[in-house]
Write a structure and sequence with these properties.
It is built from no helices and eleven strands. Strands 2, 4, 5, 6, 9, 10 and 11 form a seven-stranded mixed β-sheet that branches. A four-stranded antiparallel β-sheet has the order 1-3-8-7, with no helix packed on it. The N and C termini lie far apart (about 40 Å). The model has no long low-confidence stretch (mean pLDDT about 95).
Length: about 120
């Protein structure tokens, strides 16, 4: 059974930091590109960052470039999102996403974790 379980969401003040984790199981983690997306009520899910299966290539949305860092530990079947200099507009539910790095399918979503940036 495939599972992506996010954790680490919290309430944090503007300018603060937070690290999200996503624990994967049920598929060959090292064969998958991993990404983080986020979504606010009434909006489409927005891509945040991706890391490819060997961990050598990362990509970021312009809105988080220089503030967020995505990383992965293939031995631990986990992906992380280090978020620094958080802004109120970073408030969202953050989702972990896995996609077969060669075929592009199958793909899997986690259930999400809430991040709230507010004073």
């Amino acid at each position: 059974q495939v599972q992506l379980v996010e954790s680490g969401g919290d309430l944090v003040q503007p300018g603060g930091s937070l690290t999200l984790s996503c624990a994967a199981s049920g598929f060959t983690f090292g064969d998958y590109a991993m990404s983080w997306y986020r979504q606010t009520p009434g909006s489409d899910r927005e891509w945040v960052a991706s890391i490819f299966n060997r961990g050598w290539i990362t990509k970021y949305a312009d809105s988080v470039q220089g503030r967020f860092t995505i990383s992965r530990d293939n031995a631990a079947n986990s992906v992380y999102l280090q978020m620094n200099s958080l802004k109120p507009e970073d408030t969202a539910v953050y989702y972990c996403y896995a996609q077969d790095a060669v075929r592009g399918w199958p793909d899997y979503w986690g259930q999400g974790t809430q991040v709230t940036v507010s004073s």
